Amino acid sequence: MAPYRCYIGLGANLATPEQAIRSALNALAQHPRISAVQCSSLYQSKPMGPQDQPDYTNAVATLQSELAPLELLDLLQQIENQHGRVRNQHWGPRTLDLDILLLYQNNLPLTIQTPRLSVPHPGLELREFVLIPLAEIAPTLDLPSGNSVQWAAANIAKNGLHIIAHPPITSL
Length: 172
Fold this sequence. Notes:
The chain is of the alpha+beta class. It has 4 helices and 9 strands, in the order βαβββαββββααβ. The chain has one domain: 2-Layer Sandwich (Alpha-Beta Plaits).
């Protein structure tokens, strides 16, 4: 089976968000069935949900994976749990959030709709904290809508999004 090219959204706003994101990236990079991990800069963003929570630290990573999509989801949730992720409130604060945004196999985009996994990630093109970091690492990528990620990132409201650190991992 051909490997998957995966785009993963990373976010955190509790405890030590930058450290949690760096730790998650290292866990992915060290997995025996994952390679070629690259990450955007780290960005600070306003919360998408309730505003009575700290700002988020966000990034987008791309990687090659030999894991099937649900195996990758299981791994991401395991990493979240290792970082103390608790799912109490929709769009609430979190120690770590890892989302599969897009998947490609043989350079073809995959669409997955199961009770556990939706790819492309719903709302992908409505979130500046996803589009702008994604455009940083994959500027020529076309989104499911047919728009280029570069165009979508240039045309979305920034909502105060800004870079707070350079890429924690550029290539492994």
